[in-house]
Amino acid sequence: MGKRFRIALLPGDGVGAEVTAEAVKVLRAVEPRLEGVAFEFEEFSVGAGEYLKSGDPLPEATFQRLTEFDAILLGAMGLPQVRRPGGTEMTPQLDLRERLDLYCGVRPVRLYHADHTPLKGYQAGEIDFVMVRESTEGLFFSRRESYAPDAAEARDTMRISRAGAERVFRAAFRMAASRRGLLTLIDKANVLPSMAYFRRIFDEVAAGFPAVRTERVYVDAAALYLVQDPRRFDVLVTENMFGDILSDLAAGLVGGMGMAPSADIGDRYAVFQPAHGSAPDIAGRGIANPTATILSAAMMLDWLRGTAAGGAMIRGAVERFFATSEERTGDLGGRLKTSELGDRIAELVGS
Ligand code: ATP
Fold first, then answer.
1. Which domains does the chain have, with CATH numbers?
2. Is 215 in contact with 182 (CB distance < 8 Å)?
């Protein structure tokens, strides 16, 4: 019996459509190599462009339809010139995380070529860790608040709930157990009471995973160690805002945003998207690096049931491309177009 997977495509804004098309191209190359597996794609308009058309960046009818799919593959959303009356950008990808309860933000960070890192002495594969970011609360919790310009003060709340912390810690422990067995908690427990609470819950959950070694590092020191010695990390887990910042820093260690895949995973739904935004500075020119999105599609195959071999095929193709070719997109100093890189990786799939 074959298995048909229905995938909702949300190309979004800016470079989103350009990079999503390449991920679909690579998935189409994988499809015939997975016995009995078929992918069916349906595209939806969500994001700043949709806001300009309909007044709602994520129309309710679209949201309802998305819940019928096996997985969601997203490009990027938001444009700096398209803002809500309060001044904030469209962020339907954050709305999706909250509404679909995608609490576990997974960002694998892997060096595919020594030339991609600003650090000295690292070969391909020597930077290889996963950042797990709690994605439904933390310091993003009060993002819907608004303040009048003449307000005397403004506050953002760091919300850490017991249930929210426990579930993301458990996911991070399971991930560490399946890798090199080290989990690093990143917090600010020396200053913020919410973070001391976060750390206590981490310690409680840790007791259930005796095979995983743990360490606890303050967020400022984590920024230092990530640059000084990223080899020491395996899986890192942290709250929403710290994860937001450190995952961009981590992307910078392996070639920038074009090399940084991401998945937002809940107990029932999951969204796969590059860690980058809509990159309006390079959009529309066909020069964005699609690797992050292609690797996010590989994560989607890891997550769907019965397609993990396809995820490994995609990562293998990306690895072989960067190991054997000197061609690169502009962000990595080359002249390759977005679609050409997609072609190269699609050709290498399964070869
Ligand atoms: P957001 O807040 O939505 O995550 P951002 O404003 O932080 O977005 P990005 O859109 O991620 O920013 O872009 C940051 C920088 O990285 C820009 O200079 C952009 O051109 C570059 N960049 C992002 N994605 C890619 C890509 N796929 N290929 C090449 N360069 C990229």
1. 1-112+262-309 (3.40.718.10)
2. yes
